[in-house]
Design brief:
Elements lengths: L10 H11 L3 H16 L5 H15 L6 H12 L7 H9 E2 L2 E2 L1 H11 L10 H11 L11 H15 L6 H19 L7 H7 L4 H10 L4
Antiparallel strand pairs: 1-2
Length: 216
């Protein structure tokens, strides 16, 4: 069933976000490095998993401090994934020592299992999905936040009639969320490379940012 979005999301905004993302050389290198790591170490034995855990945690700042313990945990979880639903797998990966590292788990699954099955879960993605869907049109379940997020992101993609990958949509959610925060408070702590793009005096960049932040 289709629903009316609180704030429409046309493909032009997704495209603008991905063009802006192309200007972020740091993030281009980061994504290529993670892809190369997956190509070189496709499995989930303890050695490969530790490298992957450290890479995601360091490059994306997911605040996992017990990286060896997390690698051991992920290795155990990945040994028995048969019949496990995607959202439940992320929840299992996230659970360590009584804490839930959902941002880390979603990024690990996104980069090292399947980008299209596992959208990235972070504060900006959650915020922007809610912004477009509206508070009354979201699926909510405090006990299963990642499952709800996945349902909501697919609901947004379906009702906005977007013909893009989840990776492309993720780039929009991240950059649009950051841009909203930066416009409210330009002194807020955001990635330095992204801040430089937002502060750019280039007419081309200004035009892309206008598209990114437009309300249709």
């Amino acid at each position: 069933m289709e629903i009316e979005l609180a704030v429409p999301l046309p493909m032009s905004q997704i495209e603008a976000a991905n063009r802006l993302h192309g200007k972020l050389l740091q993030w281009q290198v980061t994504d290529r490095a993670l892809h190369a790591l997956q190509e070189r170490f496709p499995g989930f034995d303890i050695n490969a998993t530790l490298l992957k855990v450290v890479a995601v945690n360091q490059l994306y700042g997911t605040k996992v401090y017990a990286v060896v313990g997390m690698a051991q945990h992920v290795t155990e979880v990945m040994q028995n994934t048969s019949g496990v639903e995607d959202a439940d797998l992320v929840e299992a990966l996230a659970s360590l020592n009584g804490r839930k590292h959902r941002s880390f788990a979603s990024k690990f699954a996104h980069f090292f299992i399947d980008m299209e099955r596992f959208p990235i879960y972070d504060m900006f993605a959650v915020k922007m999905v809610a912004y477009h869907l509206g508070t009354q049109r979201q699926v909510r379940d405090l006990a299963h936040p990642y499952r709800c997020f996945v349902e909501n992101i697919h609901r947004l993609k379906r009702n906005a009639r977007l013909f893009c990958t989840l990776k492309e949509l993720d780039r929009y959610l991240w950059l649009a969320g950051l841009y909203q925060q930066w416009r409210k408070n330009s002194a807020s702590q955001i990635n330095a490379e992204v801040a430089e793009v937002f502060k750019s005096t280039s007419m081309e960049t200004a035009a892309e940012l206008a598209i990114l932040s437009s309300r249709h």
